[in-house]
Every structure is written in structure tokens, then in C-alpha cells.
Known about the structure:
10 helices, globular, seven-stranded mixed β-sheet
Amino acid sequence: xxxxxxxxxxxxxxxxxxxxxxxxxxxxxxxxxxxxxxxxxxxxxxxxxxxxxxxxxxxxxxxxxxxxxxxxxxxxxxxxxxxxxxxxxxxxxxxxxxxxxxxxxxxxxxxxxxxxxxxxxxxxxxxxxxxxxxxxxxxxxxxxxxxxxxxxxxxxxxxxxxxxxxxxxxxxxxxxxxxxxxxxxxxxxxxxxxxxxxxxxxxxxxxxxxxxxxxxxxxxxxxxxxxxxxxxxxxxxxxxxxxxxxxxx
Length: 249
């Protein structure tokens, strides 16, 4: 278990946690090397098989609108995939494809071993748990619903995506706090991305940067930081579960 090293702010007690996914609860490699390639491989077959599905039809309509005249929707989707663009209809379609993959057992959601025990302990203690990711809400629920630690979706009270605004915009975090009916300073935001933490801090949140060596995250020095969720728990007065040898690895 790793502790926390302070940035420019001191930890304060919180009543809710808002967590990022990629690089925070889940390895960057899982998203880059498993989820994204699966969606790219599945795109044509999925669109062909679900051409009359209202969700797919609505997404393709939105793709045409966003891409502009003259670009084939599938070409636009592949271009956005290559750019890792945060485009709503792409994220929705990726979520639909991933849902099929999770349902078939081709995909299992990765979580770092320290994450699920802490989430369960925090939920038992009455800490409100919430997710904010650039991936769609549907995709978030798939990762936690089909995770290596089982279905964890019941632990969370809220799932938020970029429908709330960009993750590097302070207004997005203010909107989430309003949605949660909590003062901003009652919420701890966890992310590996310093610019996201900057925005949350501007909105009044407590912040902590997850600096996982496996992901090569670089500490910003602007925020408290921890190497894992038990380190966050120690620093912010949250319950620290007893981890098994496998979970602590």
C-alpha cells in the first residue's frame, strides 16, 4: 500500500468520491489494447447486423451531422477512432459494440486489484461513489458490471460522461456537484490526468492524482497523489480494507 504525497492542497474529509476510469481504476492498456481494437474490428459487422436498430440509426444520423457532407459515416467513425476523438455518437456506438462483447464473454472489464476492495469498503461506510469518464455512461457500466471483480455497478450512485461537459472544464464538475446535491468540497475527484484535476480543484473539489507506475503516469506536483486506492484511503480518512496477497500485488 502506498501513501499520499501532498501537492498544493491538504487533504480534507469528504463524503463522496468521483472517479475517472482509464488510468485510475483501470489500466490504460486495457482501453487502448483491448476495448478500442475490439470496437474497430467489430464496426462493419456490427453496423451491418444492426442496421435497423433505432439506437444505431440515431448514432449514424448524428455521425453524418458531425462529420459534414461528403464523408462516409464509417470512414468518419474510423477516423475518429484513430484520433481517439471524444465524439458523442462514436462513444455511443463503441459502447453498443462493447456491450455485445461483454455479453458474449469476449471482454472482461479490467480493474486494478486494489480498486474493488476499496470501493466496497467505502460504499459500506456510506461514502457516495460516482464515475466521470469520457467514455459513455453505457460503457462505464459495462466495465464495472462485467469486471474481473464481478458486478460493481450497485456500488455507484451516479455515472457521468461528457454530456456533463469536458473533463478539463471546471463547469463540468460544478454541474456534477449540483446533480449530486453536494457542496463541491465534499467531493473527492480521483484521476491520473493533472488537467482534469486542475478543473475539479477550480470547481472546489478535493483532488488526488493516481500515479500508477504500470501506466507510466507522471506526477504533476500540483495535487496530492497516491499510487493506489489504499493510499487514497489513508490520506483522506476513508476505510482501508485488508487486502489479500493477490489484491495487494
